[in-house]
Amino acid sequence: MLIDSFHRVHDYLRISLTDNCNLRCSYCMPEEDYDFTPAIRLMQVNEVVAIAKAFVDAGVKKIRLTGGEPLVRKDAGEIIQQLSGLGVELTMTTNATQIHLYTDLMWAAGVRKINVSLDTLNRDTFLFLTKRDLFDRVKDNIDLLLKKGFAVKVNAVVMKGVNEAEILDFVSWSAAAPVDVRFIEFMPFEGNRWEQEKVVTWQQMLDVVRNAYGAGIEPLPRKAHETVKQYRVVGGKGRFAVISTMSAPFCGDCNRMRLTADGKMKNCLFSKGETDLLGAFRKGEALLPLIQENIGQKAMALGGQFAGDLQNIDASSIVNRSMITIGG
Predict the structure, then answer these.
(1) CA–CA dist 57, 116 (Å, integer)
(2) Most CB within 10 Å of its CB: which of 31, 95, 316, 320?
């Protein structure tokens, strides 16, 4: 097992397949003309599988594929098929623009849960946020996933002046359809122009919902390792939740690790340090000692860079990559 100095067992690995994406969301990608990592520096199919297996051998039970947009990789299907042989729960986070091409392959590979990044239910706002006119395709593909039996979670980063007026629209959707909506507090990363004033906190979101629904919403019990504070409209088909990274962190029983598309291990989304597993693998070095060392250096919360005191966060002092190079 992979256990850190705070006695947390780590059995969930998020693997970024690429830092490339066909959308241009400003909170994730610093600029339109972004220099993506050259293919030679990315993990190749056999390397993704071999490094993932090292984690599985050390106790990992769940793997989530992320990006960028993981499905812009031409060999994404091959990676999914090969990872399915590791005997762990396999999931994906995607923007759903390409997923209609992969639903049958994913189902055959045992994938049953898909997270879709969608920050708005308004076509014009989608174009503003992503700089791509693909809203209808994303919405249609979510319907397709539901029709084919996938469990769908929709991730929405909420930002003041952008989409906070849509909170009730998303909650209404979660009541009417079997989708789980997850509101994410706006987080600081390199180049995303984070400001405290743009953050809509968990409590602020909940106040909006309670003012509209009153006693018509109910909190749901938290499961171990969950990053969400979860609720349901009474009688609704789905659920809604808040990932409160900025105002009420949830690091106490974290079980997550990350592997970037260029093969660097991060023990936290906000960790300063990284371990080059890909470089070690290409040299024929043992990976387990490096993985264990990385986990042993994990901070108690938020990479040790800030705490849940939103008013006193200095984004300029946070050392990290842009979100797209870490993985969603």
Answers:
(1) 29
(2) 95
Q: Which residues contact 252 (CB under 8 A, 6 or more apart)?
A: 301
DSSP 250: -
Q: What predicted TM-score, i.e. pTM, was given to this entire model? A: 0.92
CATH of residue 87: 3.20.20.70
What are the tens digits of pLDDT across the range 51-73?
Answer: 999 999 999 999 999 988 999 99
Tokens describing residue 289 = 């000692």
Whether the Cβ atoms of residue 175 and residue 237 lie closer than 8 Å to each other = yes
Which sign does the torsion angle of CA 113, 171, 302, 5 carry? negative
Domain count, the chain: 1
Q: Residue 167 — φ and ψ, nearest 5°?
A: -55, -45
| Strand segments (E) across the chain | 2-3, 9-10, 12-16, 62-66, 89-94, 113-117, 151-158, 179-185, 217-219, 229-233, 239-243, 256-259, 264-266, 275-276
Dihedrals phi, psi of 306, to nearest 5 degrees: -160, 170
Termini Cα distance of the chain: 25
DSSP-derived secondary structure for 93-113: EE-SSSGGGTHHHHHHTT--E
Break the chain down into helix, strand, coil percent, rounded to 5: 35, 20, 45
Domain boundaries, position 159: 2-326
pLDDT of residue 219: 96
Below-50 pLDDT ranges, the chain:
none
> How far apart (Å, rounded) are the C-alpha atoms in residues 245 and 260?
20
